[in-house]
Amino acid sequence: MTTAEQTPAQAKVLQAPQTNHWPAVSAVALGTFLLVTAEQLPIGLLTAVGSALSVSEGAAGLMVTVPSLVAAVSAPLVPMLVGGLDRRILLLGLMALMTAANVATALAPNFAVLVSSRVLVGVAIGGFWAIASGLAVRLVATENVPRATAIIFGGVGAANVFGVPLGTLVGELTGWRIAFASMSGLALVALIALLAVLPSLAASQAIRPRLLAEQLRNPGVRIGIIATVLIVFGHFSAYTFVSPALQKLSGIDERYVGPLLFGFGVAGMIGNFVAGSALSHRTHRSVLIIAVSLTVAMPLFLLLGRTTIGGAILLIVWGLAYGGVSVGLQTWMIKAAPQAVEAASSLWVAVFNLSIGLGALAGGVIVDTLTLQGVLWLGGACALAAALAIWSARTDEYLR
Fold it and tell me: Where does the record place the Major facilitator superfamily (MFS) profile domain (predicted)?
């Protein structure tokens, strides 16, 4: 089913707002910053948590795996369960859940309670992302949607550059429980901000399994989903092991890996906003350029990344390209399914989160059983396959 074939009974066409709600866009961006920080914060605190609760670092890694997998399920499930509930109320409820979940993590007496609290974090992440990722069309005029989407997804880059490192530092200086308590405080700030500036957002449609299935019959949505799976799976299969790649392939001292990853995050933020600007003019071409750039950047590590300078430059190029992935593919989904943005976004968020976990898992298997170089080849091959899928939609007018 193409976008033109959707009927009024399936979805209401949302009218662009008469005024731009930029404070609301900023509040949602704060929410995305919090979500990504909460999801990834345990990465820097695994040793401390494992030691305190008498579990191995491998078991402590469930603090990251569990919310990612739960988020993948929650993204389509939460909108289905709440039906026609005002999306403002839903977002406020999910942020309140995030606040409570981080309190539970901070006070967890044992590892079982802690993992249970991370399940709640996953529910909040999946549900919030499913609504927030396509919210720009509800908050700003049509011509400002790519820019607003870039701002919302800017919270992702800010979390990687500032949120996770600062949260880890707080944990190292004051203890991991204080770090998670701080996350609860930040969630409360985000909740208050959303309460203050987010307008009423009546549900455009009730999300049902049939509506979700119908999106997969939309060629544009289908290609967007395929591209998302390939790019995100390939990226995380390789990026999960970027630290050993920099050290073993590029000969970079371990002391400089952290600053380089900070540079990757900054480059990602720049790429996010550059892509947001370009997408307002040429969606298809911009997303294709992102996929092609990733196709080149990852395998080139094996040729030009054998030196310190080469490895550092390629890492920054990689960061610039990947920084545009979220805003690029979400804009693609909005244009491919303008009458079912929330349903298409729910599917997109689900496969995005699932691809993160599966990509990291596949990368680990390849590194353990084959070679470190194998994950870079896999990442490049997946990006190439995504580029070919994206290129196949070059004649679709609504993606131009």
Answer: 24-398
User: Is 80 exceeded by the pLDDT of residue 261?
Assistant: no
Instruction: Say what the pLDDT of residue 381 is.
Output: 94
3-state helix, strand, coil in the chain (%, to 5): 80, 0, 20
> Which pLDDT belongs to residue 274?
87
Query: With respect to CATH, is domain 209-399 assigned 1.10.10.10?
Result: no
> 131 is written with which tokens?
């609504």
Query: How far is 349 from 329, CA to CA, in rounded Å?
Result: 11
Residues in the chain: 400
Sequence spans of domains, the chain: 18-197, 209-399
Do 74 and 125 form a contact (C-beta atoms < 8 A)?
yes
Architecture (CATH level 2) of domain 18-197: Up-down Bundle (1.20)
Residue pair 372/306 in contact (Cβ under 8 Å)? The answer is no
Cα gap 290→274, rounded to integer Å = 11
Alpha carbon of 126 to those of 79, 123, 222, 266: distances in Å?
Answer: 10, 5, 20, 25
Q: Do 18-197 and 209-399 have matching folds?
A: yes
Long-range (24+ apart) CB contacts under 8 A made by 140-143 are 140/16, 140/17, 140/20, 140/21, 140/22, 140/25, 141/16, 141/17, 141/20, 142/16, 143/280
Amino acid occupying residue 318: W
pLDDT bin (cut points 50, 70, 90) of residue 8 is: very low
pTM of the model: 0.78
